[in-house]
Amino acid sequence: MTTLHVLSAGAVKPAMKTIGPAFETVSGTSVAAQFGPAPELRERTRDGTGDFGVVIAPEKLIATLIDEGRLVADSRRDLGGVKAAIALHRDAKVPDLSTADAVRAAIRAASAIVYNTASSGQFIDEMITRLGIMDEVTARIHRYPDAEAAMRFLGSDDGRTAIGFGQSSALRGYEQALGVRQVAALPDAIGNVTAYATALCATAPDAKAARAFIDFLAGAEGLSHLAATGVE
Which neighbouring-strand residues pair with 80? Predict the structure, then answer.
């Protein structure tokens, strides 16, 4: 059986659990995906894409890799956007989070503020700064390399008073396993949507299989899997 190697942003990881097997059923090609935050994907592709056939990443990174000749321009397909969202311990009381002022109050009241060190976490840094409370809460901020580590910390919050942030698709993916729950998207006034895209690697070992996967991923069935996990 042919195996297609995919390098992907972590936001798509929950959807890939079902997309990979579904594609294998219709194509006979298995999918082996490796995941990481956008800065890591950038580093891993700086010297080329190696044996990977497809990259899934924030659209800005996809555009950069196309400009550098590492991805094939005419293969690019847009997949949807992921909202920045808020998570709490599964058993925590949910405060009002409907406005920027309400989110500011919730952050101030939290025993810990948890998010990752990737680009989505950088946005949360900027959001807290714009809310005017960064100096006040810096000592309570816990940043982790990825969403899984951040949500593991949040799920172990015995006091149920920590607050977490991340991309909606990633937060949903850890709800059952780590004892957290996504409770709201950030209000529009302070929110963010990260758009994702995919493209064929210029050095793909099997370009035909890679293009077939891209067509599947960006087609009706693939998009339905993505939407179910928060990539819309």
Answer: 196
Per-residue pLDDT of the chain in tens (232 residues, 90 and over written 9)? 799 999 999 889 989 999 999 999 999 999 999 998 888 899 999 999 999 999 999 999 999 999 999 999 999 999 999 999 999 999 999 999 999 999 999 999 999 999 998 888 999 999 999 999 999 999 999 999 888 999 999 999 888 999 999 999 888 888 888 999 999 999 999 999 999 999 999 999 999 999 999 999 999 999 999 999 989 8
Eight-class DSSP state of 37 = -
Q: How far is CA 134 from the centre of its chain?
A: 24
Measured N-to-C along each axis, helices 13-27 and 220-228 cross at an angle, to the nearest 10 degrees, of: 150
Burial annotation 21-44 (CB, 10 A radius, 16+ → b, else e):
eebbeebebebebebbbbebbbeb
Hey, how many other C-beta atoms are within 10 angstroms of the C-beta on 98? 10
Q: What is the 3-state secondary structure (H, E, C) of 95-157?
A: CCCCCHHHHHHHHHHCCCEEEECCHHHHHHHHHHHHCCCHHHHHHHEEEECCHHHHHHHHHCC
